[in-house]
Write a structure and sequence with these properties.
Blueprint: E1 8-15, E2 18-24, E3 29-34, E4 49-51, H1 55-68, H2 86-96, E5 104-105, H3 106-117, H4 124-133, E6 145-146, H5 159-168
Parallel strand pairs: 1-4, 5-6
Antiparallel strand pairs: 1-2, 2-3
Amino acid sequence: MIKPYVMTYVYSYVSPLGEILIESDGKFLTGLWFGNSPTSGKHPKNTNYTETEIPVISETIRWLDIYFSGENPDFTPKFKIMNLTPFRKLVIDEMCRIPYGTTTTYGEIAKKIAAKSGLAKMSAQAVGGAVGWNPICIIVPCHRVVGTNGSLTGYGGGIGNKIALLKTEGIDAGKFTLPKSRKFM
């Protein structure tokens, strides 16, 4: 079976934190990540792309402009997450419910998913894996998820960017601890 050709659009957005890459399939936002992130390699290196600004990219740029001005955007660009397993969808849905200017923990997300799934318990580590897999940073607010012990762990965009994003939302990042085994970026 031959897969249909899908054009990929990429745009480089210059944020106060550096380059952010915006990816689209032409209709939906499909990726958003820091160009300098330690895990930027997890994003596909598609050689068949066009660097241009199309409507969904323009909408994403507007969202980012509002966000980085310190405001909570009152809309969300239409996004589609590829290769979304049922578990990852549950985690993404929970992350999208975290209000602007607040945080939650991997453990709290695990408890909510366990309750919705009729399970006695859910692994916070499994949730952490799904949070770290998120291909659309900031808009799907994985930066708002912290360790149960208050550690700023688990951000593929770099701990420095996570701190800056929390501060952008008015969150006192000083109340959290830095992970001991991670490089500070």
